[in-house]
Automatic annotation (TrEMBL), chains A, B, C, D:
Coiled-coil parts of chain: none
InterPro entries reported in the protein's UniProt record: Gfo/Idh/MocA-like_OxRdtase_N, GFO_IDH_MocA-like_dom, Myo_inos_IolG, NAD(P)-bd_dom_sf
Name recorded for this polypeptide: Inositol 2-dehydrogenase
Domain Gfo/Idh/MocA-like oxidoreductase N-terminal intervals: 2-119
Alphabetical UniProt keywords: Oxidoreductase
Residue intervals of the GFO/IDH/MocA-like oxidoreductase domain: 129-248
GO molecular function, one term: inositol 2-dehydrogenase (NAD+) activity
Family that this chain belongs to: Belongs to the Gfo/Idh/MocA family.
Lineage: Bacteria, Pseudomonadati, Pseudomonadota, Alphaproteobacteria, Acetobacterales
Signal peptide from the UniProt entry: none
Pfam families according to UniProt: GFO_IDH_MocA, GFO_IDH_MocA_C3
Enzyme Commission number, as recorded: 1.1.1.18
Length: 330, 330, 330, 330
C-alpha cells in the first residue's frame, strides 16, 4: 500500500480522488484544497482526512503526492513535494512558461524524487495499443501522423482568458500524443487558427479552430487539428500512415444500437467528453504511478515530456501569431 | 462470336437484351416477344431484328437461346430449343411444378444441349467471392448459414396471385444460395409465414413475411428469412459460421457520404432493388453462359440446380401450409 | 441502505457479491456457500461475514436475499426466503421443471414477497435502449426479431450433462429476450439442433449448434440461433424489423484500433465472454433490484418471466427431440 | 448528337475515348495521337477514324474537341480549337505555368468558345453529393475541410521528373476539391513535404509525402495530405466540419465480404486506382460536357478553376521550397 495525498479537489482532482479511494494498492492519506469547503465535501464523501498542504508535505508517512491544483501553483508544489522526498504526480501542464518548467525540472532532478506528468491519453487502452503496435512495426516506418481533437462545446470565455490559449490548453495533449507516436522530436511547427465558433473567444485573443503541421528531422509529418465545437460528441481520432500500412484509433460511440429506415442508417453520437471518454485512461494512469512508486521504476510521461509538449505549444502559439513557421529548440 | 437469340422482352428480358447487345463476344441475332410491340420497341433500341419463336428455333445459325418469357412457357421453350440443338439459358424458375421440371430436364438430357438456369446471385462478385472463400476453407467446416432477403416493397397482388407464393417466387433465390453455400443438400425444411405487410397478400392466400430452417444430413443448419418490405432499401445479407470463423457479405450502400450531427451518424440507404443491386451479377452471368457455349464447358447453375431449388420451395410451401416440417426427397 | 445477504459464492455469485460490496445503497450483511472455504475466501476479500443459510433467513435485519446457488436449490431457497418475508433476487433459472417453478411462484405469491429473476441482458444499456426504442415505435409494428448468441467455446461436458441442455441452459436468455422485445407471447416453436462443435456434447445427448423459430398469435416471427463456438469472441447480436425500419444492436469490440495494409482492413475481435460483455448489465440489474426493494416497486423480470422463458425452453427441447413444432400452453 | 473529336490516345485519352464511343448523345467523329500506331490501335478498337489534328480542327462538322495530349501541348491546342470555334474539354492541367494559363484563357475568352477543365473528382457521385449537401447547409457554416489522397504506389521517376512536382501533379486535384468544397478562395498556403517513399524521388528534387494548410479570408481552414504510397489501395477521403456537424465521404472497398476469426474482423482493401475508383466520375464528366455543348450552358469546372488550382499548386511548391507560407494573389 502506497500512502498518497492529493492536492486540489476541483473537477480533475475529484476524479483522481475517487480513483485513488477505490484503488486496492493505495492508502488515501489526506487531501487539501485552497477552498476549505471543497476539500471538506470531497473528504467526507470518500472518508479521507482534510489537511493543510504544509502538514501533508511535512508528514514522512506520505510517500506520494498528486498535484491537481490550479496551473499557476503546479511548479512550486512539485518543487516542494520533491524537496520533501515524495513521488509526485502532476496534472498537465507543469507551467505555462517553458522557462519555469525547466527550472522546476532542474530542482526535481536534484532532489531525485520521481515525477510523472498527467498526459492521460497515453494510458487510454486504445491509444496505448496504437502506440505499441506502431513500435512493433505493424505499419512499418512511420510517414505521417494525423491527430484530430474536437471538444463538444467551448469553455466559458473566463476560462479561455486564463488558459494560455488553445495551443497550450487544448492542443498540448495532441502535441504529447504526436511525440508519443512519432518516436522522434518535431523540429518545425506551422500553425493556423481562427475564431469561428464563438466571436467572444476571438475578442479574448484566442482561437477556437486551429490546425498545425509538424515536421521531424527525419522528414516525418504530423497534422493536428483542434476545434472547440463538435455537435456529435467529443471527437478523438488518430491515424498513422507508415511504409506498410495505416493504424488508426476510431471514436467510441455511446451505444451499439443502429436504426435503419427510409432516411438511411443512424448510429449514436460519440462519447460526450473527456471525463467519460477517458475514464479507463485515468485509472490506468494511476495504476502506473502507483506501480512506479512501489517498484522504483521511473514513471512516464516524465517532466521532460511535459516540457517538450509545452515547447511545441509555445512554438505553435508564436507560429500562429506571427504567421511564420517556428523551429523547435533542441 | 456466339450467335444468340432472346425470347421475352419484359423487364428481365430487356435487361439481358441490353447486356447481350453490349457484349463483345455475342452476336445478338434476334429477339421475340409474345407482344409484338414490346419486341419491336426493344429491337429498335438495340438494332436487333425481331423474329418469331419458330423462325428463331429453326435458324441453324443461332447457337444459343435465352428464355426470358413468362414462367408458364419456360419448360416448353427449353425443350424446343434443346431439341433444336441450341444452348439454352433460362430465367428461373423452369416451372412451378417440380414434376414438370423433371420431365423437361429428362428431355434436355436426351438432347445433349447445354442448359443454364438464371440464378443471378451466384454471379454477384461478392457472393461468389463468399462461396469461393468458404470452399477454400477460410471459415473452416460450415456449421450455420444465415440468409436474409428483404424486398423494398411488395409487388402488386395480381402478381402475387400468379407467382406460386413467396417461397417459390422470392425465397427460391435463397434456397439456391443455401445449396450453393452449404455444399450439401438440405434434407429437412421447417417454415413459418405471415401476412404482416399487406393484408391483401394474406387474402390472396400468400405470406409476405417468412422464415425457414433447413437442416442437412450432416447436421448443418440454414436460416432463411424473407420479407416483402424493407424501408431502407433492398436488404441482401448472408452470414456463414464455420469451425474457424464467420464469413459474411454486407449490403451495398447507395453513397459513401456520412453526416454526423447532434442526432448521431447517418449513412445512406442500401441499393434500391435487384436490377440495380445485381447489375454486375447479370453481366457476369451472361459472360459465363457465353464462355460455356464457346468452350463446351458445362454451364452452372444446371437444370438440376433449378429442380433442387424448386423442390425446396415446394417443401417449404407445404411445411408452411401444414405446420409440419417436410423431408426433401432425394 | 438495504441490508442484503447473498447465497452462493461461485462464479456468478462472486460477481454479484463484488457489485453488492461496491454499491452505495446496499449494506452487504452476510454471505453463505455450501462449500465453507469458498464462502470464507470471498468473505475475507470483501470484508463480509460468513453465516449459515438458516441464520441468514432467520435474521429480521436482513431485508433482501440474492440466490446464486446451484440451480437445483433455487426454488426451495426462494420459497424459504419469501416465507421469511425477504425480497428475493434469484439467478436464472428458477428450476429446470416448469411445474416446480409454477409451484414456487404460487408460494411466493402467497407470501407477498417481491421476486426478481436474473435475466441480466435486459439491463444491458444497449439492449434496454433497443427495447425502449421499439416500444416508442421507431421501427413501427414489429414483424421479425432475429437473435444470435454464440459462446466463445463450449463448457466442459460435465457441465453440459447437468445443464438441462442448450435450449434450457443457453438459449433461455434468448427466449427471455424474444419475449422482452416482441411484446407478445410466442405460441409456436420449431427447433433444429446438431452437435457440430464437440462430438462429446452429442454423446452426452445435447446439441451445440441450434436454431429456433417462434411465432406469436399476431404472426410475428422470431429467429434464434445459438452456438457453443465463436472464434472471434462472444457474439451477441439482435436485429428487429418492423413496418418502419430495422433497429439492431451490434457487438462491442475489444479495441477501436484498426490496421489497414495489403491484406485489407482489420479490427479487433469482440468482447470475450459474458462476465466482461455484460459487466454494466449486472450493475444495472442490481441497481434495479435495490431500487425496487427500497421503493416497493415490483421488480422485473418477474417470476412469471422466469416461468415463461422456461416453458419456451422446454417446448424447444421437445420440438428438437421429436422433430415436431410445439404449441406453447397459455 | 454532338460530333466530337479526341486528341491524345494515351491512358486517360483511351479512357475518355471508350466513354465517348459508348455515349448515346455523342458522335465520335475522329481521333488523333502524336504516335500514329497508338491512334490506329484505338481507332480500330472503337471503329473511329484517325485523322490529323489540323484536319480535325478544320472540319466544321466537328463541334467539340477533347484534349488529352501531353501537358505541354494543352494550352496551344485549347487556343487553336477555340479559335476554330469548337467547344473544348481539356484534361488538367492547362499548363504548368500560371502565366501561360492566363494567356490561354484570355484567348479562349475572346473566341467565346466554351472551355471545360477535367477535374474528374467533382463528378464523382459521392463527392458531388458531399458538395451539394454542404451547399444545402447540412453541416452548417464550414469551419474545416480535410482532404486525404494517397496513391497506391509512386509513378516512375521519369514521370516524376516531368510532372511539375507532387503539388502540381497530384495535389492539384485536392486544391480543386478544396475550392469546390470551401466555397471561398484560399488566401494563404503552408506546405511541408518529404521524400520518404522512394529516395530517387527526393534525388529528382520532388517529394512523395506532403501536407498543406490553406486558410481563407473568412478564416476557414483546409488540411490536405498526399502520399505516393498506400498499401491498402487508393485512399481518397474527405471530411468537412461545420457549425452543425460533419459531412464526410468514405472510401469504396473492393468487396463487401468480411472474415471474422481469432485474429479479428477483416474487410477488403479499397479500390485500387483512379481509373477504377473514378469510373462513374469520368462518365458523368463527359455527360456534363456534352450537355453543356448541346444546351449552351457554360461548362464547369471553368478555365478559371484550372488557373486557380494551378496558382495554389504553384504557391504550395514555393511554400515548400522556401519554408515560408505564401499568400495567394487575387
Amino acid at each position: 500500500m502506497i500512502s498518497v495525498a492529493l492536492l486540489g479537489a476541483g473537477r480533475i482532482g475529484a476524479l483522481h480522488a475517487r480513483n485513488l479511494a477505490a484503488h486496492p494498492k493505495a492508502h488515501f492519506a489526506a487531501l487539501a484544497d485552497a477552498v476549505p469547503a471543497t476539500a471538506e465535501k470531497l473528504g467526507q464523501e470518500l472518508g479521507v482526512p482534510v489537511r493543510g498542504v504544509d502538514e501533508i508535505l511535512a508528514d514522512p508517512g506520505i510517500q506520494a503526492v498528486m498535484v491537481c491544483t490550479s496551473t499557476d501553483t503546479h511548479a512550486e508544489l512539485i518543487e516542494r513535494a520533491a524537496a520533501a522526498n515524495k513521488a509526485v504526480f502532476c496534472e498537465k501542464p507543469v507551467d505555462l512558461s517553458s522557462e519555469r518548467i525547466r527550472a522546476c525540472l532542474d530542482r526535481v532532478s536534484t532532489s531525485g524524487a520521481p515525477l510523472m506528468i498527467g498526459f492521460n491519453r497515453r494510458f487510454d487502452p486504445h491509444l496505448s495499443e496504437l502506440q505499441r503496435r506502431l513500435r512493433e512495426g505493424e505499419a512499418g516506418e512511420i510517414e505521417m501522423v494525423t491527430i484530430l481533437s474536437r471538444d463538444p462545446a467551448p469553455p466559458p470565455v473566463s476560462y479561455i482568458e486564463r488558459s494560455g490559449g488553445l495551443f497550450r490548453d487544448m492542443m498540448i495533449h495532441d502535441f504529447d500524443m504526436a511525440r508519443f507516436l512519432l518516436g522522434e522530436e518535431p523540429v518545425e511547427v506551422h500553425a493556423v487558427g481562427s475564431s469561428l465558433v464563438d466571436p467572444a473567444i476571438g475578442r479574448a485573443g484566442d482561437v477556437d479552430t486551429a490546425a498545425v503541421l509538424l515536421k521531424t528531422a527525419a522528414g516525418r509529418i504530423c497534422q493536428i487539428s483542434c476545434s472547440r465545437r463538435s455537435p456529435y460528441g467529443y471527437d478523438q481520432r488518430i491515424e498513422v500512415h507508415g511504409s506498410k500500412g495505416m493504424l488508426r484509433a476510431h471514436n467510441i460511440h455511446t451505444s451499439t444500437v443502429e436504426l435503419a429506415d427510409a432516411g438511411g442508417f443512424r448510429t449514436a453520437p460519440v462519447m460526450d467528453f473527456f471525463l467519460e471518454r477517458y475514464t479507463p485512461a485515468y485509472r490506468r494512469e494511476l495504476d502506473h504511478f502507483l506501480y512506479c512508486v512501489a517498484s522504483g521504476a521511473p514513471p512516464r510521461p516524465t517532466g521532460e515530456d511535459g516540457l517538450r509538449a509545452q515547447m511545441l505549444a509555445d512554438a505553435a502559439t508564436v507560429a500562429h501569431q506571427t504567421g511564420q513557421p517556428q523551429r523547435i529548440p533542441e
